[in-house]
Structure formats: structure tokens, C-alpha cells
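Data card: per-record layout.
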Amino acid sequence: MSITIKDVEHVAKLARLELSEQEKQTFTEQMNAILKYAEQLNGLNTDDVEPTSHPVPLVNVMRADISKPSLPIDKVMLNAPDEEDGQIKVPAVLE
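The structure for this 95-residue chain is written out next.
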């Protein structure tokens, strides 16, 4: 597979970029060099390599979610500025 100047012009148009002729030539050469380098990966023997989605194992760093008893409602309401029917009462914000 090879990138042509037409391909570079098409991508530039999609990206709303104006490129000079020198820039088109440079990008064509650079993209072809990238493809040539990536094609070297096809030569690797990957028969004994298991497919992975991440190169290193992912581990959740958060603690386990363990259910514990919460504070009694009467102690919680001691910190509330106002309470009604076991709930914290706040000023209305909508009219």
C-alpha cells in the first residue's frame, strides 16, 4: 500500500487544511515511511503470542466496596441547620 499526493490532498481537504506543494510532497513521503515501517510488523512471528487488549494487567486500585452500618440518623441531624421528618431541610431554590 502506498500513499499518493491525491490521498494527502483528500485528507487535507477533510481536515480543512491548505497545504503547499512542498508540504504535500513532504507529507506523502512521511506517510509512506510510516507505512513501510509498520509493514515490518508483518514479518514478526506471533504464533505463540496470546492476544491482549493491554500490555500490562489492569488492576483496580480502589478498595473493595464493603457495606458498613452508617451513622444513626439522630447523630447526623445534630449537624444539620434545620431538619424535618428525618431529612435535612434547606431553603427553596426554585419559586
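Known properties of this structure: The two ends are 66 Å apart (CA to CA). The helical segments are 5-14, 21-39, 73-77.

See the next section for split statistics.
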